[in-house]
Amino acid sequence: MTYVALLLNSFEKEQVSSEAMEAGRIAANKYMVKNAGKDQFHLRVRLHPFHCLRINKMLSCAGADRLQTGMRGAFGKVQGTAARIAIGQIMLSIRTKDVHGVKAVEAFRRAKFKFPGRQKIVTSRQWGFTKFTREDYVAWKQEGRIQPDGVNAKLYENHGRLEARPPSTLFLQPARVYKDRIGLKK
Length: 186
Hints:
Elements: E1 3-10, E2 14-17, H1 18-35, E3 41-45, E4 51-55, E5 77-85, E6 90-97, H2 101-112, E7 119-123, H3 134-143, E8 146-149, E9 152-155
Antiparallel strand pairs: 1-6, 1-7, 2-5, 3-6, 4-5, 8-9
């Protein structure tokens, strides 16, 4: 059983309101629950709406000239929050089994309509939400070097205290071999 991770990347520098983020999350979640099942995927919203949007309210009724001061002291009140997004930033990510990959693409296509600007759906090279590629994860899993850790995984390296490591991992070869070291001649 293998897992696929799909990413929804932004291709414009923009601001996305918290309401738009919630609408996109609901659209993707509803489609996946209906077509793949409630326990067959893990959806993450990777944006954080920390930017405050402000408005300087101006009255337009009769007698309003005594209440408003124009642009004097024009720092407005908070109207809402938004996430500021860079080009290529990940907006949503989903982890699911390979058999539900097509359904996840359709869920992201529906979520794209809730966001301003342009987005692209990208298939990640990683195994689920881990930082390991699919090939490395499968190879290290067969060697017994990967330990599941919730939605992530830990890799047994060749350093650390000997008493903290399982006996089966004591004489393993290095997991990652770095060929180009900075400052070292070949």
